[in-house]
Amino acid sequence: MEQDGRIGAGCFAHARRKFDELVKYNLSPVGTQAILRIASLYKIERQIQGLSNEDRLAARQSSSMPLCVNLHEWLKLERQRVPLGSATAKAIAYSLNRWDLLTAYLDNGAVQIDNNHIENLMRPCDGQKGMALRR
Question: Is 126 helix (H, G, I), strand (E, B) or coil?
Answer without folding.
Answer: strand
